[in-house]
Amino acid sequence: MFIDTHAHIQMREFDPDRAETLARATAAGIGLMVTVGYHLEASRKAVEAAQRYPQIYAGVGIHPHDAETYDDTAEETLRGLAKQPKVVAIGEAGLDFFRNRAPRATQADAFRRQIRLARELDLPLIVHDRDAHQETMQLLEEEAAHAVLLHCFSGDLTLAEEAWRRGYYLSIAGPVTYPKNETLREIVRKARTDRLLLETDCPYLPPQAFRGQRNEPAHLLHTAQEVARLLGVPLTELGRLTTENARRLFRLPPAG
Ligand SMILES: [Zn+2]
Prior knowledge:
Blueprint: E1 2-7, H1 18-27, E2 30-36, H2 40-52, E3 56-60, H3 72-82, E4 87-96, H4 104-121, E5 125-130, H5 133-142, E6 148-150, H6 157-165, E7 169-172, H7 182-189, E8 196-198, H8 220-231, H9 235-250
Parallel strand pairs: 1-2, 2-3, 3-4, 4-5, 5-6, 6-7, 7-8
The structure holds zinc ion.
C-alpha cells in the first residue's frame, strides 16, 4: 500500500474521469492521497474532495505563483479551511524563482506567513521550492518551521543532507525516473529512510513511461519501483516505510 503525498486531484484536468482515476489508484495499491491546494479556490476544492472521498486528505495553501493574493482576508479563509475535517497540512507554499510569477519579496512574505500559520495550527507544511533552495532553507530556519515536507525535491545532495539534519521530510516524484536525473537517484540511494515520501504531483510530472501524458496517482507505482530499486529494498518494504512516514507526518488515522 502506498500514499500519494502530493496530488492535485481537484483540478479540472480530472473532471471528466475523477472517479475512474481514483479507482485506478486503488487498483494500483495507492490507498490514500493528499490533494494539495495552491490558491484559495483550489484549497476549497481540495477540502471538498476530502469530504467526498474517503481515500483523500487535503492540504490548503497559496502557491508562490499566487503570492500577491495573500493578505489578511486570504489568511483568515485559509485558517478556516485548515480547521475542516481531513485537512492535514498547510501548503503548498514556498518560493518559485524559476517562473517568478510574483515578485520575490511578495513570495517571501506569503511564505513566511504560511510557515507561521502552520505553526499556529500545529500542522505540517508542504513546501514548494523551485530554484530558490538557499532562500527557502533560510526562511524555514528564521521562522522556526517544524514538520516540513520539501515536495518534489529538486536540490542537490548537500541540500538534502541539510534537510535531513533538520528533520525535514523529502518527497520524491516522477523525475527520479528521468534518464538525466542522476542527482536525484544519488540522493535516494543515500536517503534518510525515515524521512522519505512518495508523490505524483499529478497532473504534472509523469514518470518516464508516461511522459507527455496527464499524470495520475496510479502512476506512483513507477516512481516507487525506481525508488525501491535504488534503495535495494522490496517494493512492499518501501510501501510499508513510506506509508509509515506519511502517517506520522500528516497524523493520518491507522489503517483498517
Ligand atoms: Zn503541486
